[in-house]
Amino acid sequence: MSSSSTALSNSSDHSAQSYTPDARNDQVLVYLNAAFVPRNEAKVSIFDSGYVCGDGVWEGLRIVQGQVVSFDAHIERLFAGAASISLDIGLTPQAVKDIVLRTFEVNGMRDGAHARLMVTRGVKKTANQDPRFIVGGPTIVCVAEHKVIDPASKEKGLRLHTSTIRCSGPDVFDLRLNSHSRLNLIQALLQAIHTGADEALMLDPQGFVSSCNSTNFFIVRKGALWTSSGRYCFNGITRATVLALARSAGLSVFEGDFTLAETYTADEAFVTGTLGGLTPVSAIDGRTLPTRGMGPVTRKLYGQYLTHIGATA
User: Fold this and answer.
1) The domain at 151-309 falls in which architecture?
2) Is the pTM higher than 0.90?
3) What does the pLDDT look like over 237-263, one tens digit per residue?
4) What is the pLDDT of residues 209-243, one digit of tens each?
5) Domain spans of the chain, in order of start
6) Strands 287-288 and 199-203
7) How many other C-beta atoms can be found within 10 angstroms of the C-beta atom of residue 208?
8) Does domain 18-146 correspond to CATH entry 1.25.40.390?
9) Would you tell me the crossing angle of helices 93-106 and 71-84 to the nearest 10 degrees?
């Protein structure tokens, strides 16, 4: 085993996507191009554009008490992303929503489940970059799994490490596009893992705090909620929801540029994402935050978020 593989195998599996293992996931049926197939039989061609060069878009969706959280917003983001790369999904937004709903339904999922909806440009005549070599329609996959965040893991909080990999501008790689190509973000996460941290904190091209490798980032200072300007971070649906909830609750909100130094002296920090909702941060670059996990403002916002989506802690 290489030293790199050893470092990964010895690292913590704690992350913003950590969930409690569920044996039922071994038996799920996967939607693959108009058919439902057993998980271990779900296959795509090695000539699929998503496999060849990450040419596609995706969404992560959570179902709570029979309702898909922010369903319309997710589907709108999927179609906007597809349009931006001239990818014709070939279905209406409602037809795509029906795929997600049927995938949850055939697997008997009404709560505590998460789906990843993936659309690639489809199969190519040859393994190259040029989208003009497509020979058919898009590949559409929906994988639903039983996923419940471990409460103890959430209380503990994430340890972040600031990566040397920067969040890119839209002229290089637009992070507002949910693209299958995530190698730069994986590189950032690997840097964090190799230092013993759980996730990567990433800066923008000017050196201001921007995002984590798969989630949006917030800090709390003197009772006020801070997050980046949004110019170089993910177009997070949960991020937008939390900002709206904070403002409706009368919390002071700052969206703009701030530095690592201001982050190190924060009272609380947390990240947001579809699966985890709000996940607290306990330490940044080896500096332990005063709350060491779920602080009072984070806990309050998390409670408001759970109420908003109709979930329980």
Assistant:
1) Alpha-Beta Barrel (3.20)
2) yes
3) 999 999 999 999 999 999 999 999 999
4) 999 999 999 999 999 999 999 999 999 999 999 99
5) 18-146, 151-309
6) unpaired
7) 19
8) no
9) 120
